[in-house]
Write a structure and sequence with these properties.
Layout lengths: L2 E4 L5 E5 L4 E5 L4 E4 L5 E3 L12 E5 L22 E5 L4 H18 L1 E7 L6 H14 L2 E5 L4 E2 L2 E2 L4 E7 H28 L19 E5 L5 H13 L3 E11 H18 L6 E6 L7 H4 L19 E4 L2 H5 L3 E2 L5 E10 L3 E3 L17 E2 L2 E2 L4 E6 L2 E6 L5 E11 L2
Parallel strand pairs: 19-22
Antiparallel strand pairs: 1-2, 2-3, 3-4, 4-5, 6-7, 8-12, 9-12, 10-11, 13-14, 14-24, 15-18, 16-23, 17-18, 18-24, 20-21, 22-23
Helix pairs in contact: 2-3
Length: 403
Amino acid sequence: MLETACRDGTSRVKLSTAKQSYRVSLGKKLQVNTATGTEREIRRIVSAETMPGIATVAASSASATRDSFSPLQDGHLPTEVKVVAQGLSTRDVQLFQSKLVKILADAMVKKRKVPVPIKFSQALLSKLDSISTSCLVEIVVIANDGVVDGTSTGENCVQVSGSKKRVGEAVSEISTLLLLEVETFQRTKLAGPTQQVVAYPKEWRLPCADLELVDVTSTSAEFLRVQQRMLESLPRARIAHLQRIQNKFLWRKYETTKREIAEKLHRPQVEEKLLFHGTRDTDPEKVYRNEEGFDMRFSATGMWGRANYFAHDALYSHRYAHASSGASMKQMLMAMVTIGDATSLASDATLRMPPVKKAGASSLLGDIRYDTVTGVTQNCQVYMTYNNRQAYPFYLITYYSAV
């Protein structure tokens, strides 16, 4: 027979027999043989049959099984849970009883309905199935005027069944999923039946407001990619703050222009580059917080005429960076630029648009021009666009450098 000893305020019980001695941790659910050091996980509930010193009595017929605390069949807790003990203090009995009630409450079968404000698609059903598997719950889909528990829902919804804890986790994941699905639905609705849906960048956190600055954490792969690009030409730079610019209005204009260039070139995709841009005395906010974005009307005439200038190297744009908080802290933008078909030219300050392509490159709309002009200055490859909508301010970089 097992001898039972329990210390007040602890979850450790020492069990001993004539031949073996064990140390049991109820908190970690481990049993350790003190002689051999062998550990094993405790999976069974000790009942009166296996441990004469303690027994549990429930007033209702529903109870936990001996092998595990499984969800109760009728979905309700026992009306009363008592602990009958021999050789244990009153405090230990109360502690055991309160823990038993909590475990039973967590294991209780729970059902929750979540309204679905959009039509079910195969993709949505697949994602719901994935949540059902990962959260160990049952998800029942009720479409249109379905009936749940004898009551008409009058709307699309899903019913989630399972343990209290698991249902809570599943409902949280479903709510997040539906927010993203509604955002996608709204994009489709706004685009109209004859237009293509705008695809926002995969880095964006959706749903979002029309304009948001989202902090990029310094340990993320996204932050490290931007940092690596800066260090290639500006090795002593240190990024103090990296923010992703999420401007829906400017991005839709950029995407439309990119699609038009692809259609003109008869290509499914066109080349894009992430390039640096310094704004000098102009606050970068005036670029990303307006309806035009980059605006060459405010650009001085440069080596390739009046255009929006972008550089592959951060060092080049550093010379034109905006002073943020004193002379030591600076800011520059990193832009997504649609390159399309680029032509490399020597410096020509008279340019107002990219040159026409070779003879024969024409369409019903007239001569076809290059999309971008590129050249080299100060040992850096630079790109010029003559269409404001051909570039989008993707990141705001706040940094300091000893260069």
